[in-house]
């Protein structure tokens, strides 16, 4: 499966850009679930200015999607039409400790690294990031959280570039946060953010971080090809409980399986396609609705298009 080469048709517009452009780049290599088709054009900007320039010259009708470290993504087998932007550590990987318990991090900084830097600086409240394998860009979009703390509890402001290449600074309130969701305009590319936490004793912070790691090791299949929690917790309930009750622990479709260890984690046992993974998810939703009447909502972001003839109708949507 490959798309028409956008570089061949648009290449002259991109002269002077310092980032990397790759046509038909397979995305299975950069997602945790290791499945799915290519990006029609992948752009890895050199820095924020390069990103803004790229977006300002890209024709408006070309769709743009930003991905982070791919730990919450299910890419469909037909791939993603248009441009996929991926921010790399070189231009977006800086961490800077500011005054007053504040810390700035680029969008490509892994959550764990922010937790480490905060601990080094004696800034508390970031231990939850130790167990989340994504990057700051994804955390900002997903309102990533664990152990009772969410991104919105620590966020001060976000810098973002819009679809036309203009730079914006958004406050925490502008991000419109709710559980695993931000209502900030979908086209924004987050490039960095400022966070804040209470000044605390480093040893206490390190103990909390170690507890988070130990919990993950015990309870989650963190060494598998997975996307983390497949579904959001329904109000007042846990997704894993209703999945388990519906008999879906260990359920498989092709190479996709609901983990035996944590049945809200979907895993690629080795050969899963995007189709296997999504069909498994929809099957789980159907069985849970039939068993307990609960309507599960996907937490994993499904992106891109189906291969012809492999369309999956969402069971509940
Ligand atoms: C083993 C495991 C455990 C996990 N545990 C947790 C957990 O405890 N809590 C939790 O909340 N999540 C958890 N996750 C899910 C995932 O790690 C988080 O959602 C994470 O925040 C996603 O970040 P990412 O960089 O991987 O983003 P991606 O998965 O690449 O993208 C996620 C979303 O963010 C958007 N996005 C990414 N970067 C940007 C950017 N720079 N600008 C604009 N939009 C952007 C994408 O378009 C997409 O919609 C887990 C995942 C795994 C595999």
TrEMBL record:
Keywords: Cell cycle, Cell division, Cell shape, Cell wall biogenesis/degradation, Cytoplasm, FAD, Flavoprotein, NADP, Oxidoreductase, Peptidoglycan synthesis. Its EC number is 1.3.1.98. The active site is at residues 180, 229, 299. Residues 34-200 form the FAD-binding PCMH-type domain. It catalyses: UDP-N-acetyl-alpha-D-muramate + NADP(+) = UDP-N-acetyl-3-O-(1-carboxyvinyl)-alpha-D-glucosamine + NADPH + H(+). Pathway: Cell wall biogenesis; peptidoglycan biosynthesis. NCBIfam families: murB, PRK13905.1. This is UDP-N-acetylenolpyruvoylglucosamine reductase. It comes from Pannonibacter phragmitetus. The gene is murB.
């Amino acid at each position: 499966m490959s798309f028409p080469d956008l570089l061949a048709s648009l290449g002259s517009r991109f002269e002077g850009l310092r980032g990397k452009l790759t046509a038909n780049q397979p995305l299975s290599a950069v997602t945790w679930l290791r499945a799915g088709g290519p990006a029609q054009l992948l752009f890895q900007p050199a820095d924020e200015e390069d990103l803004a320039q790229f977006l300002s010259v890209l024709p408006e009708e070309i769709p743009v999607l930003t991905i982070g470290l791919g730990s919450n993504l299910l890419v469909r087998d037909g791939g993603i039409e248009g441009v996929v932007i991926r921010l790399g550590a070189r231009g977006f990987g800086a961490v800077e400790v500011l005054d007053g318990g504040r810390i700035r991090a680029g969008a490509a900084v892994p959550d764990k690294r922010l937790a480490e830097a905060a601990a080094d600086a004696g800034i508390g409240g970031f231990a939850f990031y130790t167990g989340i394998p994504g990057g700051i860009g994804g955390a900002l979009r997903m309102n990533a959280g664990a152990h009772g703390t969410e991104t919105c509890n620590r966020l001060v402001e976000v810098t973002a570039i819009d679809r036309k290449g203009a730079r914006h600074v958004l406050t925490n309130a502008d991000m419109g946060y709710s559980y695993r969701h931000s209502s900030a305009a979908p086209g924004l590319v987050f490039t960095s953010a400022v966070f804040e936490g209470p000044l605390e004793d480093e040893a206490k912070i390190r103990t909390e971080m170690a507890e988070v790691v130990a919990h993950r090791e015990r309870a989650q299949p963190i060494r598998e090809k997975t996307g983390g929690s497949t579904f959001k917790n329904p109000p007042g309930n846990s997704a894993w409980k209703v999945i388990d009750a519906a008999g879906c622990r260990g359920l498989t479709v092709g190479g996709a399986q609901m983990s035996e260890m944590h049945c809200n984690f979907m895993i690629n046992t080795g050969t899963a396609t995007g189709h296997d993974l999504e069909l498994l998810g929809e099957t789980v939703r159907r069985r849970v609705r039939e068993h307990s009447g609960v309507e599960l909502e996907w937490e994993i972001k499904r992106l891109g298009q189906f291969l012809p003839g492999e369309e999956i109708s969402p069971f509940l949507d």
